[in-house]
Design a protein that fits this description.
With 230 residues, this protein is mainly α. The protein has a single domain, classed as Growth Hormone, Chain: A, CATH 1.20.1250. Helix content is 73%, strand content 2%. It has eight helices and two strands, in the order H-H-H-H-H-E-E-H-H-H. The protein has a two-stranded antiparallel ribbon.
């Protein structure tokens, strides 16, 4: 359970990240292979199916989506190194890296390259690993299976008149709403702008990363000024 109230910047940031993932996933489903890129459950199933059917090309594609998602998680671990969310961690670097991956993915998608899906999956793996933990509680921003599960458990607890962590419930509802709205935006955007709609989540991730870096630098400078350190 959360031990303190979730700060507003965490809640807003989580909704934006979930929206980014929902948008990217919609493009993945509507794109070259109708492939989810923000989570791996269906992709692992596809890998098994294509191996059983003997389609090496599609099996290889599914494997590479899984591999690049994993590599994104690895890269996030290298950058951030800690599981507890703190403002001083290197989230700006992670977000700007995600932005670069999505910009590159949009370019590759426009040229009908499978690598567009791989880099999208890598960006989502990086994001999901970055946001995995807050105050010892798992927070996912690129898929909603666990969120819906926990919300269902909460409803069951309410039915039994037992205690519910309403702060967690509110955060999960925000994440679910963000992912859903991102999917809507990604679908409408894809129908209107094709793969260029990926430029929007790429820009949002970049702005979030640069803003975090600026705020961190500003806070550091204020801390130095307050202590008289040069």
């Amino acid at each position: 359970m959360f031990t303190k109230e979730t700060p507003l910047w965490i809640t807003a940031g989580a909704m934006i990240l979930a929206g980014i993932a929902g948008c990217v996933n919609a493009v993945g489903f509507l794109g070259l292979h109708h492939q989810a890129v923000t989570h791996l459950t269906g992709t692992v199933t596809n890998l098994g199916m294509e191996l059983a059917r003997g389609d090496r090309s599609l099996a290889q594609h599914a494997f590479l989506v899984i591999l690049f998602f994993f590599l994104g998680c690895v890269f996030s671990g290298v950058i951030i190194r800690h599981s507890t969310l703190k403002a001083g961690r290197r989230y700006g670097v992670a977000l700007t890296t995600e932005s670069a991956l999505l910009f590159t993915s949009a370019y590759l998608f426009r040229h009908q390259s499978n690598a567009g899906e791989y880099l999208s999956a890598m960006a989502c793996g990086l994001q999901n690993a970055m946001a995995t933990s807050y105050s010892g509680s798992v927070v996912r921003t690129t898929h909603v299976t666990g969120i819906v599960t926990d919300l269902g458990i909460a409803v069951g607890l309410v039915a039994r008149r037992e205690a519910v962590d309403w702060r967690r419930v509110r955060l999960y509802l925000v994440l679910l709403t963000g992912f859903f709205l991102g999917g809507l935006l990604g679908t409408f955007g894809f129908l209107r702008f094709s793969y260029d709609i990926l430029l929007l989540p790429a820009a949002l991730a970049g702005i979030a990363g640069l803003s975090h870096t600026f705020v961190r630098h500003y806070a550091h400078q204020r801390s130095l000024a307050a202590t008289g350190t040069r």
